[in-house]
Amino acid sequence: MGSFPFALSSARRKASGVAFTPFWIRTIHSRMLSLVKHSRPRNAFARESQYVILFGFGLVLALMIALAVIGLTRMEAINRRMEVIAQERNVKTELVTNLRTLARERALTVLAISLMDDPFERDVALLRFRELAADFIKARDELRAMNLSPFETATLDESARLTRASTQMIEEVVDLIGDGRMAQAQQLLVNQAIPMQNRVFAQFNEMLDIQRQSTREAVEGAARAYTYAYQMMVLLGLMAVALGTGVAFLVVRRTTRTDNALFREKERAEVTLHSIGDAVITTDADGNVDHLNEVASELTGWRMEEARGLPLRSIFNLVYEATHEPVQDPASRCLHEGSVLTQGAGCLLIGRDGNEFAVEESVAPIRDHEGRIIGVVVVFRDVTKSRSMAQQMSWQATHDPLTGLANRREFESRLTELVEGARQHAQRHVLLYIDLDQFKVVNDTCGHVAGDELLRQLAALLQVKVRENDTVARLGGDEFGVLLAHCSVDRGREVAENLRRLITDFRFVWEDKTFEVGASIGLVAISQATDSVAGILSAADAACYVAKDQGRNRVWVHQPDNAEVIQRHGEMQWVSRISKAFEEDRFRLHYQNIRSIQVRSEDPIYCEILLRMVDETGLLIPPMAFIPAAERYSLMPAIDRWVVRSMFQWIAKQTEMADERRLYAINLSGQSLGDDSFVAFVVEQFEKSGISPQLICFEITETAAIANLARAISFMSVLKGMGCRFSLDDFGSGMSSFAYLKNLPVDSIKIDGAFVRDIITDEVDLAMVEAINRIGQVMGIQTVAEFVENDIILAKLKELGVDYAQGYGIHEPECLPGHES
What per-residue confidence (pLDDT) applies to 608? Predict the structure, then answer.
């Protein structure tokens, strides 16, 4: 057991597939690698200690070498200096001594001449006197040529001056002797020449003293240099001793730390091996088990005493999860290939007691220090729960949690496969898009819990009525999709009708209530001509919409040239164009003046705010081109909010428009009336802009007000309380206008232009306009006639007593200043 971690680490280094080993297996291997650290003689910690020791001894050696080099160099320099000083001082001393000797001999020679009686002896002595003078000059020049100090030079110059004076006197003595005047010569010699010569001797003696002093100073300097060199050698020696002591201390300390670290590492490795939560089995070189830990014993059902010596395949029984076929013995493969083997997902371990465990395992060779394979180590773990969870998550990613059917993502994935198959192999398939009718009734009556139960029951019915290779999916809300693979359009229509009847005949019972629902189904063929998944889904949605528009609870087969389908596609395209117009700020506000027919001073300056959209090329698009699509796809609340916000901001900037006699009419859709948060939005915009509510009149269509009567009354009450006005638009187009009018707190009604346009030629239209205006007058509500296109209609309206007129005959819409294209 103690050798396999090292072998494992070696195998990990050698295996080429180790990068694909699962993370948990690599973690186990890294833990077991800790045993390798204390089994290697040259581990990282030991190598670090060796480097420190080598560095320390290198420093000691360097100091010793430096000590020797400095000592020898300094001694050699001192010796050379002493030699130079001695040689120089000897020469100088010798020359000075010679000068002094020559000067003395000259003086003695002159004295001897003065005492000689023989003229021949005096001539010889004079010749000797001349020779001594020449020798003196030569010695003096040699001394002057040497490296003299300033003091020596001054002394030599003084001696030269005295010598010249002495020489002059001696020459005079010699001349007197030559003339035979001996008495005068002796007197001059004794009284002047000899004393002058003594002064010359004194100068030479002084020079000798200078040389002796220089010699003493040189000797003292050499002694100081020697002392300094000695001190440096002692200091370096002490440093070498201190460093050597420090290195020795460090060696002892590092060795102790290394021993302690190795001991702790060994303990940690042993604890790690005992605490590993994964199963570990080791074998010998023949693939026979020699060790397994407690986890491996629990999973395999074999105790270590029973398993030791048995072939690994006898206790480690692996089979493939899908087929239960045996997996090749991993120990044999590892011993043969000599590399790490990792078995991925899809394997089961059959325990001794027959229990099955989903496992992931890794098999690595055990190598000795020479790299020879001496066995294998198997590390594995029980992944039954995690694999089950992964399968569950995979199922949840592709299925609807409520019904258990495929979800939209999976549906589109399978649809993509069918579209590709149709393109490449000329196959034919069918897509059914099912939208439940009257499902909202169940939700509104019994709540979403009942609605969810209805969806579950219908999903179960649909699932059993299609083939096994067909796909039923919940696409969202109460919408379902069915993919009929390898199916013709005629057969697809039969299936669609069967499903529709199945849903229609189904009775959903919740508590004491029974509900019937229907289904509008759009059918689209998938063929080689199908362009894309998005296109066929759009076509299916359009076909389903047509089925609903044709009366619901029916099947509509998509045909590209159907007028209804073309309209549906056009509306869907408008949705993206409207969204893009929002993003690019391409909505514009226009206005149309509304004239007071019965001119009264209290009548406000009145105009209606109109919406336009600028298309991608810069052209203005009238509202009726995109409003129907916006209403169908619930985009009107966003449009209404933009109009209110933009108009309020515009009014706030127009200081000259602050006259409260002005009135701006803003249209609101029925969808905004049904939005609980819209009234709060309007109030917030009043607060932000700071404009007076008396400037605003909101126009609501008669049909929208009646469809949302309770909310319309609540909405109008809040804003009327702030000072806003309300007008009922398109009045007369509904069937219950007069019945509801007395319940709505409106300030004016706008007579539908369909009646106004033909009042001159159509008596019925005239009577309708007259009746509506009469009712308004009785109720104290002002009337506004729309579609006033000429003065004849205007005059008739004035005759009838209508309050206001609006139309192209009064004023053609203009762009609001600041909202130009």
Answer: 94
Chain segment 88-135, per-residue pLDDT in tens? 667 767 777 777 777 777 677 767 766 676 777 767 777 777 777 777
> CA-CA distances (angstroms) from residue 821 to 31, 355, 576, 579?
72, 78, 21, 18
- Residue limits of CATH 1.20.120.30 in the chain: 54-247
Evaluate if residue 532 carries a pLDDT over 80: yes
Are the C-beta atoms of 704 and 726 separated by less than 8 Å?
no
What does the alpha-carbon distance between residue 625 and residue 602 come to, in Å, rounded to a whole number? 37
Contact 473, 537 (CB under 8 A): no
CATH code 3.30.70.270 region(s) in the chain: 405-560
Superfamily, domain 405-560: Reverse transcriptase/Diguanylate cyclase domain (3.30.70.270)
The dihedral formed by the CA atoms of 5, 1, 299 and 322, expressed in degrees to the nearest 10: 50
Backbone φ and ψ of 595, nearest 5°: -90, 140
Domain covering 580-815: architecture: Alpha-Beta Barrel (3.20)
Q: What is the DSSP letter of 598?
A: S
Q: Give, in order, the Cα–Cα distances in Å from 364 to each of 5, 272, 319, 379, 517.
A: 10, 19, 20, 9, 64
- What DSSP string describes 359-398? EEEEEEEEE-TTS-EEEEEEEEEE-HHHHHHHHHHHHHHH
Query: Which DSSP state fits 532?
Result: -
Q: What whole-number distance in Å separates Cα of residue 347 and Cα of residue 416?
A: 32
Report the mean per-residue pLDDT for the chain: 79
Average pLDDT over residues 7-34: 42
Q: 4-38+277-389: which CATH architecture?
A: 2-Layer Sandwich (3.30)
Architecture of the domain whose range is 54-247:
Up-down Bundle (1.20)
What would the pLDDT profile of 366-403 be if each residue is shown by its tens digit?
A: 887 777 888 888 888 877 777 777 767 777 788 888 99
Q: By CB neighbour count within 10 A (0-12 exposed, 13-18 middle, 19+ buried), where does 137 fall?
A: middle
**Exposed/middle/buried for 645, CB within 10 Å: 0-12, 13-18, 19+?**
middle
For the chain, how many helices (H) and strands (E)? Answer: 28, 23
Backbone angles phi, psi at 349, to 5 degrees: -100, 120
Question: What does the pLDDT look like over 679-699, one tens digit per residue?
Answer: 999 999 999 999 999 999 999
List Cβ neighbours of 49 (8 Å cut-off, separation of 6 or more). 251, 254, 255, 257, 258
CA separation for the pair 620, 676 (Å, rounded): 32
CB atoms within 10 A of CB 87: 10
* CB atoms near residue 441 (< 10 Å): 13
- Residues 722 and 738: their CA atoms lie apart, in Å, by 27
Position 219, amino acid? V
Name the DSSP class of 16. Answer: T
Residues whose CB is less than 8 angstroms from the CB of residue 102 and which lie 6 or more positions away in sequence, other chains included: 132, 135, 136, 139
What gap in Å lies between CA 63 and CA 638, rounded to an integer?
89
Kindly report, as residue ranges, where domains of CATH 3.30.450.20 are found in the chain: 4-38+277-389
Residue spans of beta strands (DSSP E) within 500-640 = 507-510, 513-516, 518-526, 555-557, 587-596, 605-614, 620-621
Whole-number pLDDT of residue 29: 47
Rounded Cα–Cα distance for residues 503 and 713 (Å):
39
pLDDT at 18: 37
Token code pair at residue 145? 């040529």
- Cβ atoms of 646 and 659 within 8 Å: the answer is no
Could you give the CA distance from residue 611 to residue 645 in angstroms, rounded to a whole number?
13
610: β partners: 590
Whole-angstrom distance, CA of residue 173 vs CA of residue 167: 10
**Alpha helices for 399-488 (secondary structure H):** 408-425, 439-446, 448-464
520 burial via Cβ count (<10 Å: 0-12, 13-18, 19+)? buried
